[in-house]
Amino acid sequence: MTAFTPTPENTRQLRDAYGRFATGVCIVTTRTDSGPVGMTVNSFSSVSLDPALVLWCPMKGSERTASFTGASHFAIHVLREDQGDLAMAFAKNGDAFAGLDIVEGMGGVPLLPDCCARFECEAAGQHEAGDHLIQVGQVLRAEFNSEFAPLIFAGGAFGGFNAV
Fold first, then answer.
1. Does 126 have pLDDT greater than 90?
2. pLDDT of residue 77
3. Which of 14, 115, 143, 160 could form an S-S bond across to 77 if both were Cys, CB 3.0 to 4.6 Å?
């Protein structure tokens, strides 16, 4: 074990420690006045069953964050294990919708096809959290496909999930 006190000088060590926790990979989408926008995130969590609430955490410094903080609706797409390229496309470009069979969801939000799960949400709260925001959404509609395995992110790399 490597022990340290997190400081601005050792953020790489902190990132490496955070990376020991495997997470799912999601793309969050919304609609803006200039069109659809998406963002790849691994900071997604269920919060409550009643009411149905989820959260995700966009980085304040991202150019795309304002598109989501001002949005009334957004959709969270839990990616399949073979969608690493799609995750990378939206990590680099918020307008990576070309060639995708997009349909419109609640609030005009673009919905991506063929994911493990999808949550259409109405914005329900926002909280400051250091260099990120905690964006809470009330789930208005959810769907899932149990035939797909999720895309996993750990240690700075994508992988799959094998049930034991």
1. yes
2. 98
3. 115
- Give the Cβ contact number of residue 101 at 10 Å: 9
Q: Taking the model in full, what pTM does it have?
A: 0.93
What does the H/E/C string look like for 88-124? HHHHHCCCCCCCCCCEECHHHCEECCCCCEEEEEEEE
Q: Are 123 and 76 in contact (CB under 8 A)?
A: no
74: exposed, middle or buried (C-beta count within 10 Å: 0-12, 13-18, 19+)?
buried
Instruction: Give pLDDT tens digits for 85-108.
Output: 999 999 999 999 999 999 999 999
DSSP string over 21-49: S-EE-EEEEEEETTEEEEEEES-EEEEEE
6-21 confidence digits (pLDDT tens): 999 999 999 889 888 8
Torsion of CA 74, 75, 81, 82, to 10 degrees: -90
Contact (Cβ atoms closer than 8 angstroms) between residue 121 and residue 54? yes
What percent of the chain clears pLDDT 90, i.e. is strictly above it? 86
